TrEMBL record:
This is CHAD domain-containing protein. It comes from Pseudonocardia hierapolitana. PROSITE patterns: CHAD. InterPro entries: CHAD_dom, CHAD_dom_sf, CYTH-like_dom_sf. Residues 1-12 have a biased composition (Basic and acidic residues). It comes from the Bacteria. Residues 1-27, 201-220 are annotated as: Disordered. It holds the Pfam family CHAD. Residues 219-505 form the CHAD domain. Transmembrane segments: none annotated. Residues 206-218 have a biased composition (Basic residues).
Length: 513
């Protein structure tokens, strides 16, 4: 048996506030109109006085509709899941209710020290009718809204208009006839929603959100390129802050990456900025990355060890090792997640976010930053490249004692990341040369990253084996994985000289001067 569904159509029209509602009972197939009760629908936005949520594309609002339970709604920008969070509004809530703590916590990284108060409102006074055909068959539902949109706070800006919404329409001919009738009354197809209009009123232009408070930067200069990169990473930091507070996968890692990119850019291009202003920011970014490290390490290690055990033959899994790993990382990841939220709610992080905003509003650029980006930026990348070259010389030196090699490879890995981020800053100005350079370095950097994974994993496996032994259990499986990681680390160390020679070919770095 095949189920069939009727496809229905929905359209919205807009006109002047004084536009009336034309009679619709003479439309083709319509026998009568059945009026629906009047409703008042209100959406009250909450934000800080300087509209930080609106600037971040976040909607926090109270919805009140006649006959329905009022509720809070929180929407995040670019939510691929289409998710919105709802919390009922208490029946005894005051006219200006307090934001529920569970919602306030999620946006704390954006609000910071600001106070959430009513910032805007969309109000609809709704009337309407059901268009019925023969045998009272529903042909369409048409609602007529008188819409007012206004900002609230120290100053008020607003607009008013009429909207007509037609939905449940299964007859294309009726839809076309309805559009003609509404057009005769001065109503045209709407191109934006009332909430979008309120967004436009609340959200400051990009030029006011960033870089309007200080020196103007000439396009094409080294300073302009650096500030553009910093701005993108500050935006990424803010976005990942939201995701981390919601406990989304990979969010802590991406938050750390944004912090590292910001720190590396300020360090690699330190001659373009006033270091008295940037060094405290660099220190705070380093501390942020350090505070987030346990959560990321636990996530990576749990997955690596779980997958490693899953790949062993059953005869090698002696004792309840998988259960032990699950218990261990449930505790470790729980503690790490709590530490992440503690760091994000701390005073130092709030100060860092303010300092980053200040850097973008008034970039502390030196005279050197006014030089052309295409000529100036490669010199800074070259400095980072020389730093990596020195680190690699130690990492691939066979004379380096085995106990020091892990540290040397890790130092090369950190220098490689710094070079990669420095290249990212220069890439828009330099073009394909910088792109090719980054691509050629990737294989070498991936090998360094895998080597570090084996180092950290071996420490964790040793700890798990010790725990098992202390409980009288068998930690043999952890030893097997430890041996495999040690062997893999040795393989990578043997490959590094060839990988480096490929990445460091003269043609790849000719653009560095």
């Amino acid at each position: 048996m095949t189920d069939t569904t009727t496809r229905t159509e929905s359209r919205t029209f807009r006109g002047a506030a004084e536009a009336g509602s034309p009679r619709l009972d003479a439309l083709p197939g319509v026998h009568r109109e059945d009026a629906v009760p009047q409703q008042v629908l209100e959406v009250e936005r909450f934000d800080t006085a300087d509209h930080r949520l609106a600037a971040a594309g976040i909607t926090l609002a109270v919805h009140r509709t006649d006959g329905e339970q009022p509720h809070w709604r929180l929407d995040f920008p670019d939510d691929d899941r289409g998710e919105e969070l709802r919390v009922p509004l208490a029946p005894d809530a005051p006219p200006v209710p307090d934001v529920p703590s569970e919602l306030a916590e999620l946006v704390r990284g954006v609000v910071r020290d600001g106070e959430l108060r009513p910032s805007g409102q969309v109000r609809r006074v709704r009337t309407g009718s059901r268009l019925l055909g023969e045998d009272d068959r529903l042909l369409a539902t048409v609602v007529h809204d008188h819409v007012t949109v206004a900002t609230l706070g120290s100053s008020t800006e607003g607009a008013a208009w009429t909207e007509v919404h037609a939905h449940d329409m299964s007859d294309g001919g009726l839809a076309e006839a309805l559009e003609r009738r509404l057009g005769e009354a001065g109503l045209k197809p709407a191109t934006t929603s009332a909430e979008a209009e309120l967004d436009r009123l609340l959200r400051p232009p990009a030029r006011q959100r960033r870089g309007s408070g200080g020196k103007r930067m000439k396009p094409g200069t080294a300073g302009a390129a650096l500030v553009e990169y910093l701005a993108a990473q500050v935006d990424r930091l803010a976005a990942e802050d939201l995701r981390a507070r919601r406990g989304e996968p990979d969010s802590v890692h991406q938050l750390r990456v944004a912090a590292r990119r910001l720190r590396s850019a300020l360090q690699s291009y330190r001659r373009l900025v006033d270091r008295e202003r940037t060094e405290p920011v660099v220190d705070s970014l380093r501390e942020l990355a350090r505070s987030l490290a346990p959560a990321r390490d636990a996530e990576v290690l749990h997955e690596r060890i779980r997958d490693g055990l899953g790949g062993l033959k059953p005869e090698l899994l002696l004792g309840p090792v998988q259960a032990q790993v699950t218990r261990h990382y449930a505790r470790v990841e729980g503690e790490a997640a709590a530490a992440v939220l503690s760091a994000l709610d701390g005073d130092e992080y709030a100060r860092l976010r303010r300092d980053l905003d200040d850097l973008l509003q008034d970039p502390p650029l030196t005279k050197r930053a006014a030089r052309p980006a295409r000529k100036e930026l490669p010199a800074h990348v070259a400095r980072a490249a020389r730093r990596l070259s020195r680190a690699v010389e130690v990492a691939v030196d066979p004379a380096v004692p085995a106990e020091e090699r892990d540290i040397a490879v890790h130092d090369a890995r950190k220098a490689g990341k710094r070079l990669r981020y420095a290249t990212e800053v220069a890439r828009p100005a330099v073009g394909k040369d910088a792109k090719r350079f980054a691509k050629e370095l990737k294989g070498f950097q991936d090998a360094l990253g895998e080597h570090q994974d084996t180092v950290v994993a071996r420490d964790a496996l040793r700890e798990l084996a010790t725990q098992a032994s202390g409980k009288g259990e068998n930690g043999f499986a952890f030893g097997v994985l430890h041996g495999r990681d040690a062997a893999r680390a040795a393989e990578i160390e043997a490959q590094l000289p060839d990988l480096w020679a490929t990445a460091w070919r003269p043609r790849n770095r000719r653009w560095l001067g």
